[in-house]
Design brief:
The complex is a heterotrimer of chains A (519), B (351) and C (540).
Chain A lengths: L5 E6 L2 H5 L2 H14 L6 E6 L11 E4 L3 E3 L7 H10 L38 H6 L4 H9 L2 H11 L11 H8 L8 E6 L8 H8 L1 H15 L3 E6 L4 H16 L15 E6 L9 H8 L23 E5 H5 L1 H7 L1 H5 L9 E8 L5 E6 L4 H8 L9 E6 L5 E4 L9 H6 L8 E6 L4 H15 L5 H18 L5 H17 L9 H10 L1 H8 L1
Parallel strand pairs in A: 1-2, 5-6, 5-8, 6-7, 9-13
Antiparallel strand pairs in A: 1-3, 3-4, 9-10, 11-12, 11-13
Chain B lengths: L1 E4 L2 E4 L6 H7 L25 E2 L18 E3 L3 H16 L15 H9 L22 E3 L9 H9 L5 E4 L6 E4 L15 H5 L5 E3 L12 E6 L8 E7 L4 E7 L12 H5 L14 E4 L2 E4 L2 H19 L4 E4 L6 H15 L4 E2 L5
Chain C lengths: L1 H7 L16 E5 L3 H4 L1 H12 L4 E5 L12 E3 L6 H15 L4 H7 E2 L1 H8 L6 H8 L3 H13 L3 E5 L1 H4 L4 H14 L10 E3 L6 H6 L6 E2 L3 E2 L3 H11 L11 H10 L4 E5 L3 H4 L3 H10 L2 E6 L11 E4 L8 E4 L4 E5 L12 H11 L9 H11 L8 H4 L4 E2 L23 E2 L18 E6 L15 H6 L4 E4 H7 L6 E6 L2 E10 L6 E5 L12 E4 L6 E2 L3 E7 L2
Parallel strand pairs in C: 1-2, 1-5, 2-3, 4-15, 5-6, 9-10, 10-11, 16-20, 17-19
Antiparallel strand pairs in C: 7-8, 12-13, 13-14, 16-23, 17-20, 18-19, 18-23, 21-22
The chains are: A alpha/beta (519), B alpha+beta (351), C alpha/beta (540).
Bound molecules: flavin mononucleotide, iron/sulfur cluster (4 copies) and FE2/S2 (inorganic) cluster (2 copies).
């Protein structure tokens, strides 16, 4: 298993085979080879992708960009434009409304309870499950302060990566006097191997909207933005539709339910860089500037978008809000552990039987997730490691399979939950290659604002390159830790601070893999 | 308010940053991107310090002082972190200090010196950027750029010419003029603000290259001889050659806050021009000949007296000057009024 | 600045550079600030960029400042009085004026009102005169008058007209009725074109006043100087520069002593200037260079450059700043004061200044505004006059509680067309000015070769006019007026209105002032550099 920047699923069924799927797959691999992209782009055969009459179909992650009726002559263009330059070949993409739902298996509890069960394009179906009751209750029966208090009580923590208590975050902004406050949903989902937010938005867009409405009322924001990856065209389409429907039903707009409260929600399509998921870079990008992080303080909650108080929360975080309001904080505390309540959505990829998505209680062990929900390690190989928490995560070895995963507990092992991405590697995996791809990712994504991140990632990449090519020395491992530690201490934003954990965990836990390369 | 830096008690004012308070008190903290005129960018990360009760290493350039705050700038932890940062900046690009214009005046050198970095210790595989010497007065060597952003802020926020910007990301980040044009073909007006703000030798005065070492030059503050804004300048002069080598703006001048325009900064060749007049000249038969002061002055005094006596004082007139000093203009009108006896004094200011 | 002196009793920039950031609205009219006063332009752009200030730009050329303006309009050169009267009409009609200020601080409001309320200044009529759409005029009036504090900045585009004094008084009228004087961020702000114009005026380099604007016709002032200087002084107002040249041409002016000026290139109607200079019996020129004017001299004296002497310059915001000696002068060149002292003593006088400091002391004694601006106090930041005593902090903005003349005087000003208008023979309006890189007559800037490569002679011409005449960009063309003709490469651009051409005056090879009209403002005696009728033709 390797760590790839992109994955391409090629649908193989009767229909596509007739249309030349094999030839296209062969050419695709050949082109990738020619463009030296084989280390970055992974081509996988899948069964039917669920479309009919669309010839050969490719589905590209991240983003779930779907190309239909692909011909041999289209391949060089797709490789050049999309895989190399990051621009979709729009003439071949499928109209979003034609794309059907999701394609992974998952379990559902709170945020995913409706996904796959109701028609996401019909507000009535959402209302039929009790949707928008919480919004009505919040607006008509509760004071903003009470909502903030309820969310505090629930123990909900941010699901975007850092795990900051959500109620506490709101309590900084709610009392501020300002002519305008904003609420921003972070739907940038740039973490490689993560697609949980997409499934929430695709499968149950109204849940996010309802959560957002309540959140806005709680902090006093009358304008909200959903900042979303450009590739998530189906999400964008469905959210647009959902916002429209909410307006028609009087759930949004001016003087909602005669309460005197006004609210507008707008969708902003993101710029595409990983760092734009960092909340202050996201705000800069929303303002039309270069997507680079800002100094904190002032925190966005005090001075954010266009200098106004702005709360930024992740999609999954806010998708929890309607249920909390409807069922109460105590109910929510019934999920998860003492310190970390609720559930967490994980994406499981790599060498497992059933790659996909699951929503489980906070505190579920890594072993449970891999074995029960991921179906265990594929092809009867042995487990070697899991990269938990996304690219900025930690390589957890066998010995930590039984650690309860939540924000607090993982920290005890110098690990993080991050966005909840789990990448499983079997005994054949080579940690040098793995670390190399992680470093390359950060090298590629550094925004260039600060010295340690812009230069440090380059330097680490050059060192790991040497090691990988057999020219390294043992001291290089220590040097990588030293440099990444200084980067962790000095970088402007979390991106530049990230590499210490993957480097240290790889070097400490899998030292043999590195020494083998040195001979 | 009082704060403690390295055990030393320091009087600080609210709103001030830790870096400022430290520098004011003679405590050096390496800093590459902060400049009083571009503000804290918190980009270079060289200025990190330790603060009791605060996790991590905050940057001091954007850290406001708090009553009773206890700061350390010289622990091993701080210096090790600073050393990596400064070493990364020094090791990337190409810093050939021996022939660099900024040698001795370089803030990266200062930081390296303080941290005891003898030579760059990291190796980067990198291509060199081409030199951009397309501009008349400015020379750009991107291999020395440390992406501190001071020039970009200066061009966009101080002089508001909006030419400079950053392009690309990560390690490939570089400064560009407009949409990556050569400086000389861009919309740059060559005000030299970027030159003045650059902490290293990446953007420098083109015509002063290789002419003199910074420490050999005397700095004299004066006023621009051109337009009426009256920007304050620093003349960097080589006393032995009796020559202006370069001009910078006075940073704390209320008139120009360090900014200048292309004339004030670069149009100074006239001072040392070989066309300067060096002796009095008297015209004889339609041709000028050199004369000594004695002769020229005697001739003028005679003529003025003669004309005054024969045709009256108002047959003489004088033009004072919008280019000479107050003292000289004062004396000139006094001369016309008192010695010649006429109010026929004017200057070309209306023009 | 005779116009301002008439309105307020003092003729300098009323406010300071730092005040720019305190203005809610700034109007720039008749000033290519970005080219002629780049660092003040920078401050204004900063204020706009930081959202502190809204900008209105009125100029026949689309100058760089227009890019930062909320409202930009191009007027026909010479229509400024009509524009100001119209703005005031709109303001008064809507009751946007500052009634309290008018009541307490001003006089002759009725006179002003009678003039500006005339039908001919209605927006519709002024649209016809100025070419600015009526709706825009109303918009400008509203934005300007409703601002808490608004400032006007102008330069030679306002003053260099036969109606220059009227134009200046119009800016003053507008600012007075809007109550924008005597407070930080407001004011009427003429931008001075040369480093020490302000100082030359302050020091009495004018035919009607001694240092400190003390009138030569005022008995008491004269006595004061007679006593201090121990001599008798003339009470007759002297000649202005243009009058001097006329009198020289007629033969009644016999001798001219020129210190650091170059009327050959800077004065209007060059043919006339040449004839006058040739006629003068005895011409002395004291300069750093053999200027075009010096070529005509009988004696030329070598003077020193700014970097070779000590003293003070006074900038456009009345700030007196020190200049310091950094270099030794070349050859035998001497400081101007020293040369003057030598001549005075040779003429039998008793001068004994040892250095500029001695002179400064005398200036402090005799010039009330400079009383406290001593050599010791100027320091590194300078001091803004008026600063009458040793303990006075200087004055950032004038007319705080009262005008120098007591009440501010409003004037009804009638709009008069420029002296020379386009006709069939000369169908275009020629206007002149500066470019960023060059300065004045080029004596100093043109010695730096890089500067010359950046900015050579040119004539700016609109795309429409160029097309109808078949003129290509960079093509050398002929420009003619009733006074003469020159050639220059065409710069074809959309930045200038149809029917208007523009020539910078720095170049002796394409001397704009061979073309300009020497018609003068009757009081201010400023020539009409900004408007005359011209014709362009292809050369081949
Ligand atoms: C480099 C970087 C990338 C990030 N990307 C995302 C992202 O894609 N989605 C997200 O929700 N948060 C992301 N974050 C975290 C956000 O900065 C922010 O903490 C989060 O949106 C807050 O929401 P929460 O409190 O609901 O988690 C990222 C942070 C960093 C440093
Ligand atoms: S910029 Fe500074 S560090 Fe770089 S070469 Fe020049 S003097 Fe040396
Ligand atoms: S010289 Fe001035 S205009 Fe040109 S890039 Fe530098 S700061 Fe900007
Ligand atoms: S050119 Fe100089 S000022 Fe500009 S970013 Fe580079 S180092 Fe900083
Ligand atoms: S530097 Fe430029 S703006 Fe400043 S006084 Fe000189 S000419 Fe004027
Ligand atoms: S370069 Fe973006 S955080 Fe350092
Ligand atoms: S000076 Fe503080 S980060 Fe650069």
């Amino acid at each position: 298993m390797k760590f790839y920047r992109m994955t391409v699923l090629i649908g193989i069924d009767d229909q596509s085979l007739k249309a030349g799927a094999r030839e296209i797959e062969a050419l695709l691999n050949q082109e990738l080879n020619r463009s030296q992209l084989t280390d970055e782009v992974n081509v996988l055969e899948a069964g039917s992708l669920g479309f009919f009459g669309t010839g050969v179909t490719l589905m590209v992650y991240p983003g779930q960009v779907t190309y239909v009726n692909v011909k041999l002559e289209d391949i060089p263009e797709i490789v050049e434009e999309h895989f190399l330059k990051g621009r979709q070949v729009s003439r071949l993409t499928m109209k979003p409304s034609l794309t059907r739902g999701y394609d992974f298996n998952y379990r559902r509890r709170i945020v995913l309870d409706n996904s796959g069960l109701i028609n996401p394009e019909d507000i009535e179906e959402y209302i039929g499950t009790g949707g928008y009751e919480a919004w009505e209750k919040a607006l008509l029966e509760m004071k903003p302060g009470e909502i903030v208090e309820e969310v505090k009580q629930s123990g909900l923590r941010g699901r975007g990566g850092a795990g900051f208590p959500t109620g506490l975050k709101w309590s900084f902004t709610a009392p501020l006097e300002a002519d305008q406050k904003y609420f921003v949903i972070n739907a940038d989902e740039g973490e490689p191997g993560t697609f949980k937010d997409r499934l929430i938005m695709e499968g149950d867009p109204h849940k996010l909207l309802e959560g957002l409405m309540i959140s806005c009322y709680a902090v006093g924001a009358t304008k909200a933005y959903i900042y979303i990856r450009g590739e998530y065209s189906l999400c964008i389409e469905r959210l647009r539709q959902a916002i429209e429907q909410a307006h028609e039903y009087g759930l949004l707009g001016k003087n909602i339910f005669d309460s005197g409260f006004n609210l507008d929600i707008e969708i902003k399509v993101g710029a595409g860089a990983y760092v734009c998921g960092e909340e202050t870079a996201l705000i800069e990008s929303m303002e039309g500037k270069r997507g680079q992080p800002r100094s904190k303080p002032p925190f966005p909650g005090v001075k954010g978008a266009w200098q106004k108080p702005t709360v930024v929360n992740n999609v999954e975080t806010i998708a929890n809000i309607p249920a909390i309001l409807r069922n109460g904080a105590e109910w929510f505390q019934g999920f998860g552990t003492d310190k970390c309540t609720g559930t967490k959505v994980y994406t499981i990829l790599g060498d497992v039987m059933m790659p996909g998505l699951c929503e489980v209680d906070m505190g579920t062990t890594l072993r449970t997730i891999i074995e029960q929900y991921g179906g265990g390690v594929k092809n009867n190989r042995k487990f070697k490691a899991a990269l938990v928490g996304g690219a900025a995560g930690v390589f957890l070895p066998n010995s930590l399979l039984d650690v309860k995963m939540d924000y607090n507990n993982l920290r005890e092992y110098s690990a993080v939950l991050g966005s909840g991405a789990i990448l499983v590697m079997n005994e054949d995996a080579d940690m040098v290659d793995m670390l190399w791809s992680v470093i390359r990712f950060f090298r590629h994504e550094s925004c260039g604002k600060c010295t340690p991140c812009a230069k440090g990632n380059e330097l680490l990449f050059e060192i790991i390159n040497e090691v990988r090519q057999g020219r390294g020395r043992e001291e290089d491992l220590q040097e990588m830790v030293r440099i990444s530690e200084a980067m962790q201490q000095t970088s402007f934003c979390a991106l530049g601070q990230s590499l210490l954990m993957p480097i240290k965990s790889a070097v400490d836990n899998f030292r043999q893999d590195f020494l083998k390369r040195m001979k | 308010m009082k704060i403690i830096i390295n055990g030393q008690e320091i009087e600080a004012s609210p709103g001030e940053t830790v870096l400022n308070a430290a520098l004011r008190s003679g405590i050096y903290i390496p800093h590459l991107c902060y400049h009083p005129r571009t503000g804290p960018a918190a980009k270079c990360r060289a200025c990190v310090v330790e603060v009791e009760g605060t996790p991590g290493l905050p940057t001091s350039c954007n850290l406001p002082v708090r009553e009773g705050m206890v700061v350390s700038t010289d622990t091993e932890k701080v210096k090790n972190a600073q050393r990596v940062v400064v070493d990364l900046a020094l090791s990337s690009g190409r810093h050939d200090c021996l022939s660099c214009e900024q040698n001795g005046n370089c803030e990266l050198q200062d930081a390296a010196y303080y941290l005891g970095i003898e030579r760059p210790s990291f190796h980067f595989e990198q291509e060199r950027y081409p030199i951009d010497d397309s501009s008349e007065f400015v020379y750009v060597e991107r291999d020395k750029c440390i992406s501190c952003g001071r020039c970009v802020v200066g061009c966009n926020q101080n002089v508001v010419n909006e030419v400079l910007n950053f392009a690309n990301r990560g390690f490939e980040t570089k400064i560009v003029f407009d949409n990556d044009l050569k400086m000389g073909t861009s919309t740059c007006v060559q005000c030299g603000e970027c030159v003045q703000l650059c902490p290293v030798g990446a953007i420098i005065d083109k015509n002063a290259r290789g002419v003199a070492r910074n420490w050999e030059l005397d700095k004299v503050e004066t006023v621009c001889p051109y337009c009426g804004v009256g920007c304050q300048l620093v003349l960097h002069v080589d006393r032995r050659k009796n020559k202006i080598i370069r001009i910078t703006g006075v940073e704390d001048s209320p008139t120009n806050s360090g900014m200048l325009c292309v004339k004030g900064r670069y149009a100074f060749d006239f001072v040392g021009s070989s066309e300067r007049l060096t002796t009095p000249l008297i015209k004889e038969n339609g041709k000028f000949r050199e004369a000594d002061w004695e002769e020229a002055i005697a001739l003028i005094a005679d003529k003025f007296r003669l004309i005054r006596d024969e045709f009256g004082s108002d047959a003489l007139a004088g033009l004072a000057s919008a280019k000479v000093t107050n003292e000289e203009n004062y004396v000139f009108q006094k001369f016309m009024r008192r010695e010649v006896g006429t109010n026929n004094v004017d200057h070309c200011a209306r023009l | 600045m005779a116009g301002l002196a008439a309105s307020f009793g003092s003729g300098a920039m009323t406010n300071d550079i730092a005040g720019i950031k305190k203005a809610d609205v700034i109007m720039i009219i008749g000033s290519d600030t970005g080219a002629a006063h780049p660092v003040i332009a920078a401050r204004i752009k900063q204020a706009v960029r930081e959202g502190l200030t809204k900008l209105i730009v009125i100029d026949p050329k689309r100058i760089t400042m227009a890019d930062y303006a909320e409202i930009y309009v191009a007027q026909r050169p010479g229509s400024d009085v009509a524009i100001f009267n119209c703005l005031m009409q709109v303001i008064l009609q809507n009751g946007w004026e500052d009634k309290e200020f008018i009541e307490n601080r001003l006089e002759k409001f009725d006179e002003l009102k009678n003039e500006v309320m005339k039908e001919k200044y209605s927006p519709a009529n002024v649209e016809k005169i100025s070419g600015i759409p009526a709706a825009k005029l109303v918009e400008i009036a509203e934005m300007f008058a409703k601002a808490e504090t608004a400032a006007i900045f102008y330069a030679m585009g306002i003053t260099q007209h036969t109606t220059g004094r009227d134009n200046v008084m119009s800016t003053a009228n507008l600012q007075m009725i809007c109550g924008n004087l005597g407070k930080a961020g407001g004011g009427v702000n003429p931008l001075r074109g040369q480093s020490n114009v302000q100082g030359a005026c302050d020091m009495g380099g004018l035919p009607n006043v001694f240092a400190g604007y003390q009138s030569v016709t005022d008995e008491k002032a004269r006595q004061k100087f007679e006593q201090a200087w121990n001599c008798e002084l003339s009470g007759k107002v002297g000649l202005t520069v243009v009058d001097m040249l006329d009198k020289a041409y007629e033969g009644s002016l016999k001798a001219l002593y020129v210190m650091g000026e170059n009327p050959y290139l800077s004065d209007p109607d060059q043919h006339h200037v040449i004839a006058a200079l040739e006629k003068i019996d005895f011409l002395v020129v004291q300069d750093m260079f053999m200027t075009e004017t010096a070529e005509f001299a009988d004696v030329v004296l070598p003077a020193v450059a700014y970097a070779e002497k000590d003293g003070h310059f006074t900038n456009t915001e009345r700030r007196v700043q020190r200049i310091r000696k950094a270099l030794n002068p070349p050859g035998e060149a001497k400081e101007d004061w020293e040369i003057i002292q030598m001549i005075a003593n040779k003429m039998g006088s008793d001068w004994s200044y040892r250095d500029a400091r001695d002179i400064c002391r005398e200036v402090n004694e005799l010039t009330p505004q400079y009383g406290g601006i001593t050599w010791e106090r100027v320091g590194r930041t300078g001091l803004q006059w008026p600063c009458p005593t040793d303990t006075h902090p200087g004055t950032a903005y004038l007319h705080k509680d009262r005008f120098s003349r007591g009440l501010g005087m409003l004037r009804g000003i009638e709009f008069i067309e420029p002296d020379e208008l386009p006709d069939e023979e000369y169908p275009l309006i020629l206007t002149t000015g500066r470019v960023l890189q060059q300065f004045h007559t080029g004596t100093m800037t043109r010695k730096t070769s890089g500067i010359n490569r950046l900015a050579g002679p040119m004539v700016m011409i609109s795309v429409d006019d160029a097309e109808s005449l078949g003129i290509a960009n960079s093509e050398t063309i002929k420009i003619a007026t009733r006074r003469g003709e020159i050639t220059a490469p065409a710069f074809v651009t959309r930045k200038i209105s149809t029917g208007v051409i523009y020539i910078p005056f720095h170049y002796k090879e394409s001397p704009a002032n061979r073309l300009t009209n020497p018609a003068l403002d009757p009081v201010a005696k400023i020539p009409e550099y900004k408007v005359c009728a011209a014709r362009i033709t292809k050369i081949s």
